[in-house]
Amino acid sequence: MTTTRSFPKGFLWGGASAANQFEGGWNEGGKGMSVADCLTFKPTVDVTDYEKSNEFTSADIDAALTAVDLSLYAKRRGIDFYHHYKEDIKLFAEMGFSVFRTSIAWSRIYPTADGPACEEGLKFYDDVFDECAKYGIEPLVTMSHYEPPLYLVTEYDGWASREAVDLFSKFVKTILERYKNKVKYWLTFNEIDSIIRHPFTSGALIEDRFPNRNFEEVIYQAMHHQFVASALATKMAHQIIPGCQVGCMLTKLTFYPYTCKPEDVLLAQQTQRHTLAFADAQVFGVYPAYLLALYKNHNINIKTLVGDEEIMKDYPVDFVSFSYYSSGCSAANPSDLEQTNMNTTFGIKNPYIKSSDWGWQIDPLGLRISLVELYDRYRKPLFIVENGLGANDTVEADGTINDDYRIDYFKQHMKCMLDAMEIDGVDLMGFTSWGPIDIVSASTNQMSKRYGFIYVDLDDLGNGTFKRLKKKSFTWYKEVIATNGSSLFND
Length: 491
Prior knowledge:
Layout: E1 12-16, H1 19-22, H2 50-53, H3 58-66, H4 74-77, H5 81-95, E2 99-103, H6 106-109, H7 119-134, E3 138-144, H8 151-154, H9 163-178, E4 185-189, H10 199-203, H11 215-240, E5 245-251, E6 254-257, H12 262-284, H13 289-297, H14 308-314, E7 319-323, E8 327-330, E9 339-342, E10 345-348, H15 364-378, E11 382-386, H16 404-422, E12 428-434, E13 454-456, E14 468-470, H17 472-482
Parallel strand pairs: 1-2, 1-12, 2-3, 3-4, 4-5, 5-7, 6-8, 7-11, 11-12
Antiparallel strand pairs: 9-10, 13-14
Helix pairs in contact: 5-7, 9-11, 11-14, 15-16
């Protein structure tokens, strides 16, 4: 007798995006500028060169503030969700979403550091969440997703300033009170560990603004402030919205040892701990020994206030969410070994795994390995809030978009998710694809790196009609959701 496999009843299916990548309306509704509004697409930089794509200086801010030609400032326009949200949410509902992950742009709510909350900005998110509710879609809201207000850079020392904790807490209190009857799932900081890899977008930090200071120490000081702010946000959420759930969000960078040499195994372990340590602090409420050892060995001195340790300890997160796209390898002696791009970092290329057009290696089994690793470590519910394939999509003459490669990517990853649940005993709350509709890439600031089930007619320079088109994967994902995953096994 054949038993039909499916995901548990109540499993949350949906998609994920971020205000800075799809919202647009950067200067509408009273919104202030964010760091994302200063980032540009760099046509002369290879799309696999993450470091050059994310180089940023104070001079770039000056250029952004005086720019006349905005064609390269892709995140200012996004895909204009600001004006298309009803159309887009209707499409998400057609796919059957039970959850939609998005973020609230801090500078849309507080355009200035010392001014009042912007009612027009608050009203916009009211409308978005009301539209979700109309279709029975639960919002999963990220409080900070690579979009600190620009005034954190120009008026403060970014998240290295203690004032950032108070400013963020004011913002968080405002949105929790405003949306307490509309949002019950929250994330504090997107990929909180990523501040060590791109400090500008995560922490509003630019190295040239800290002359004669150890910039590594500056970054970890900012990280401490985000740990405290996350705990305070969790505290406020539980007080203001009884029964809500608050999660942390981690970049799951999965590394394998390139060989079975103990040196390679040790390096892979250390590399992964360097990322996991930041979720450790939010789950367990204390600094892990690894981070404390790093501070000591690198002569990093973090300034804390009385009560910080108690705040972190008393208000840990309820669940652990993470992004997973690919895996890489670690080698103690990487000479003559090919490097490959990963999500915000690099790894040694695995010869057993194929790669995407952007060099990210496609490893479905790595997702199962990651789920087991995280659940064994934290023993808290997990939520995959980013997973997807960036690819070049082609619109055929008849308007169809046959993205079978995307369908295959998701099918294999979803099967591994179910294996992790049924075979390995992992508690997985839900899955939100990145992104359900084409958006501006976080790393390369381009549109041609497409992730969506929905195509948006827009190119890297902002040319296009903004028209939405369903890809082949749209119908496929709709069937997956409708059958709660059992259609994955209709071979």
